Every structure is written in C-alpha cells, then in structure tokens.
Amino acid sequence: MFQGNPFDMSIRHQRGIWVLLIASVLIIFAPRFFLFLQKDDSATKLILLPVEEKPRWDSTRKFNGWNTKYKKRKWPHSNKTFKKPTKPFNPNELSIEEWMQFGLSEKQASIVLKFTKRGIHSNEELQKIKFIPKKTYDNIKDFTQYPMQGNESTKKLPSQGASSPALVNANEASEEELQKIKGLGPFYARQIIKYQKQLGGFVRKEQILEVWKMTPEIYAQIEAQISCEASTIRKLSINQASAEELQAHPYLNWNQANSIVKMRMQKGGFKSIEEIRESVIIDQETFEKVRPYLSL
C-alpha cells in the first residue's frame, strides 16, 4: 500500500504544472488581447481617415454625386404627351391614331375604339371608359360633340308617313322568323329560343342580353325590331313544383330551390309569393328577377 503524503511532488513535477498553467492562461487570453489590438488599430484608422473620404448623405437621403449624374436622365414615361384638340369633334368618329395623339397607347386606343363603336352620347359615358387617362379626358372634355346633341337628334327621327317594320315577338317567334331580323343570324336565333324556353318567356327585352354569347353590339342592332309580350310567360307553382323543377330555372340555383321546398313543408304551403324572401339565401335582386315566373 502507498504510504506518505500524496501532495508531495518532485521539483520536476512542480515545474511541469507551472508550465501547464502559464500555457493555459496564454491560450485563454491571447485571442482577446489580439482582438483588443485590432480594435485600437481600426479606431486609429477611422480617426486618420480624411473627412472627404467619408460617405455622406444629404438631407434628402441622396448620396452626394447622384444628382449630378442622374438629374438630367429622362425616364421613358416622361416623353408621353397629352395634346389638346384644336376644334370640336365626335369621339365616336376618332381613329386609333387620333386617340394616340391625345396621349393614349396603341393598346389603350384599340380598347377605347371598341366602346366608341357601340356609340357614346355624353361625357359621363366617356369618363366611364377607364382606359382613358384622366389627363386626356380633362384635355378633350370641352371639345366633344355627340350625335344626339343640339338639332342632330331630329335627323335620326323617321319621316312622317314612313312605315316602321313589324316587331317580332321573341316569346312566340320561330327560329326562321327570328332569322329575318336584321343583324341576327341562325346561331343567335337558336340561342334566343333556347333561353326563352328555359326562362318561361321574356318579361323585358333586356333579358336577351343574357342569351349565351349575345353581345351589346348585336343587341343594339336588333333591339328596335323585337318585342316581348309578358302575357305568354310560363310560371312555376311554388306550392307544387319540386326542387328539381325550380332549380332548372336560370335564376335559381339548387340551394335556393331546395330552400323554397323546405320552407313550403314547414309552413304547410305558401300564402304569398313574397314569403320566399324569408329564406336567407334568396336576396332581393334574385327575388325581383324570378318573381314574374312564380305563382302559388
């Protein structure tokens, strides 16, 4: 068994321990010492840096020299000009090139031309064309003249004694009769009859605009040649029709049709058509549209 004081060490061992301690201290503190020296050196360099070499920002947050380099630069949109007309004109008669002279791009001018081909009759309608920049509208609004202004409206009135063409009843006309309407071909004649059957008849002429692929341009051509007699409207009984029959109507979807049937069962039958408005999914607009097609 080992005997004696365990802390007794030889001089050689003592020296080794001291060397180890000194080396540990150097390893721990040397990096910090070098970092300290680097900070002092960078601070000295910053102090010695000439004032002219420091990057400075002016009060507008623009780097010195930016104005002298870029102040004369012209951006692409700065070349856009908005000319004022020199004499009155009809916006419906302008060409793409003439619209472009007022500051519109070629794409904007071509789109505006589609609206003017339909015919606009006031500055209010002109202003609603969102593709016309406000600057252009302000420049031309005092020079516009429209076909219906002044005495020009009388030029379009038919002369007395002239016979007006017979109107075609869209609720009773055959496909062949509809095709005789000027501006209406076989395709639209077929679509009008198809939609008329789905609705149960047209209550007003504007419903023809709801026909599949019908355009405002074609409707404008045929409007004066068509009539709609509401006496021929076919109606659905809200007290007898099934959800499938109600849903087949263009103005009702399945949820609304099913809601009407469920309300009918809860009430034991409707006493007035207005009662279907109690359904939270039938809004006022839908009710007004479908009301002429419903009965008790």
Strand order of the largest sheet: 1-2
Q: Which oligomerization state do the chains in this entry correspond to?
A: single chain
- Summarize the helix and strand pattern as letters: HHHHHHEHHHEEHHHE
Strand share of the residues? under 5%
Task: Calculate the mean pLDDT score and round it.
Answer: 76
> Shape, please?
elongated
Number of strands: 4
Q: List the uncertain runs.
A: 44-49, 62-79, 149-163
Number of helical runs? 12
Q: Specify the structural class.
A: mainly alpha
Largest sheet: 2 strands, parallel
Question: End-to-end span in angstroms?
Answer: 117 Å
Rg from C-alpha positions?
43 Å
The percentage helix is 40-55%
Secondary-structure map with pairings?
Elements: H1 11-48, H2 66-70, H3 96-101, H4 106-118, H5 123-127, H6 134-140, E1 168-169, H7 175-179, H8 186-199, H9 216-222, E2 226-227, E3 236-237, H10 243-247, H11 254-267, H12 284-290, E4 294-295
Parallel strand pairs: 1-2, 3-4
Quick structural gist:
The chain has 296 residues and is an all-alpha fold. The chain has helices at residues 11-48, 66-70, 96-101, 106-118, 123-127, 134-140, 175-179, 186-199, 216-222, 243-247, 254-267, 284-290, and strands at 168-169, 226-227, 236-237, 294-295.
What does this structure look like?
The model is unreliable at 44-49, 62-79 and 149-163 (pLDDT under 50). Among the domains are: 81-150; 168-232, DNA polymerase, domain 1, CATH 1.10.150; 236-295, DNA polymerase, domain 1 (Orthogonal Bundle), CATH 1.10.150.320. The chain is elongated. The chain contains twelve helices and four strands. With 296 residues, the protein is mainly α. The longest helix is centred in the N-terminal third of the chain and has 38 residues, at 11-48.
